[in-house]
Design goal:
Order of helices and strands of chain A: HEHEHEHEHHHH
Number of strands of chain B: 11
Low-confidence stretches of chain A: none
Radius of gyration of chain B: 17 Å
Strand order of the largest sheet of chain A: 2-3-1-4
CATH class of chain B: Alpha Beta
Low-confidence stretches of chain B: none
CATH superfamily of chain B: P-loop containing nucleotide triphosphate hydrolases
Number of helices of chain A: 8
Number of strands of chain A: 4
Helix content of chain A: 55-70%
Shape of chain A: elongated
Oligomer: heterodimer
Largest sheet of chain A: 4 strands, antiparallel
Helix content of chain B: 25-40%
Mean pLDDT of chain A: 80
CATH topology of chain B: Rossmann fold
Number of helices of chain B: 7
Structural class of chain B: alpha/beta
Order of helices and strands of chain B: EEEHEEEHEHHHEHEHEE
Number of domains of chain A: 2
Strand content of chain A: 5-15%
Distance between the termini of chain A: 37 Å
Distance between the termini of chain B: 28 Å
Mean pLDDT of chain B: 82
CATH architecture of chain B: 3-Layer(aba) Sandwich
Radius of gyration of chain A: 31 Å
Strand order of the largest sheet of chain B: 7-8-9-3-10-11
Chain lengths: 299, 224
Amino acid sequence: MNKIGYFVSETWVSLRKNLILAVAAIAVVAVSLGILGLVVMGWNMFSNMIKNAERKVGEVDVYLSDLTTEEERAAIEAFLVGIPEVDPATVVYKDKETALREFKERFKEQPELWEYIDENPLPNSYELMTKDPKDVGVVVGVISNEATYRERIEDIKSASSAIEKLENIFDKFRQIGIIGVIALAIIAILLVSVTIQVAIFARRKEIGIMKLVGATNWFIRWPFIMEGVSEGLVGSLLAILVALAVKVWILDKLIENLQFLRLSLSPGLLPVLIPCMIIGGIVIGALGSTYALGRFLEV
Amino acid sequence: MRRVTKVYKGNVYALEDVTVDIERGEFTFLVGPSGSGKSTFIKLLIKEEEPTGGQIYIADTNINQMRKWKVPYLRRKIGCVFQDFKLLPHKTVYQNVAYAMEVTGKSHRVAEQQVPEVLKLVGLGHKLDAFPDELSGGEQQRVAIARAFINRPPILLADEPTGNVDPSLAEGVVRLLERINAAGTTVIMATHDKEIVNAFRKRVIALENGRIIRDQDRGVYGYE
């Protein structure tokens, strides 16, 4: 009787030890994949914001006077295309009518902005992109210092420096996020491998007997790989729940309440992100158990 | 076995220059005091240990050069019985034997047919659902023999199979091995049980300090 009590308590202790470890491994998988999900969603929202913004980073708009003749326009186009920092393929002429149509399209929900206009107040313009967004200032300088066309160029506008700065900040944020995700994924792999090591140790006698009766290495390995993969899978499902909760309760609210920022999540993002997170969990689990098997199960 | 040597760490010679042929269908006792190299002999045959020198052939195949992934298939052709039974305590008698079949990829249905048959053969047809610790040492060793035999291996190795069995039941265990041998399986039994060896009058290979000192048909234990 004493012996049975001893075995029961031993088993319970080992099970509880393993359970705590398994829960820890699952939690770290969930945290790493959850952060991955949040970074991806945040990045998507921000890049949509930049895409929806009036001017893209690196874009320069050159507004022409209505007095510009066709020859002058051709000369200005040649001059703009010739600036070394400008990407020649992006230089586009936009006439007044196109500009008005686009304006109406953009503000179609606020018709009061254009309903009472009888004459088109918008100028003809050129839109162009710099090869490198950093050169916007240089390009603006070159254009405004060109004496020949000063009379005909009414205004030069480029993307606001605020957006540019925001983008830099967000780039840093994304880099830190990615490094964090990688670091956490490695910790998750190691933790999964520890739980598998404990499981291998607990079943070492059984493993020895399996080898003796001629079990192939894969026959022995599979249950452990499945254990690791299921830990990864559960972790990824938790991460998806967290990511969805953040989306519904935080991101959707932000999008709704900060409409002027034109935030949005691409509709195609979640159908790609969710399977990727599941695959990520499976990969973490498989790598963790493979690592443990490679180190602690010599076959 | 050709000129096989096994050196363990620290220059311990477990087997030294051992050459021996064991023919198909033979029943051979491997005798000798503790530390004479009997267990190493067995371990080399199932590639649990690698020889330091020499060649080992099983059915004309040199197992030294065998690729790692083939080792499980070698072991399926060699049944093993050990002094400590090596049964899984949380599995029933039936499950312990069926396990050896499942490992080789046989279906549950095949196991359901053959396991009770083999357990009946070893005289445990009525204890399918018992757990190992509910059985006597002799009964546990019969379960281990059933497990070793379930895949009908051409070779059966037994390392001190009577060591943990009540002396009055030991003879029954060896009788069982003899019956398996009569069905065509080569049996190699390592033992230092003098009474058993003398009672059965089989081929005896005697080891001492890792060397074969005697090899005789219908032999006796020979140590006093």
